[in-house]
Amino acid sequence: MEQDNGDLDSLVRKRIRALRVAQGWSLDELATRANLSQSSLSRIENGQRRLALDQLVTLARALDTTLDQLVETASDDVVTSPVIDGAHGLMRWPIKGEPGMSVVRQRMTEPPPDNPARMRAHPGREWLVVLSGTAILMLGHRRFRVETNQAAEFPTMLPHAIGAEGGPCEILGIFDRDARRGHQRDTEG
Question: Closest by alpha carbon to 138, among 154, 161, 156, 113?
Answer without folding.
Answer: 161
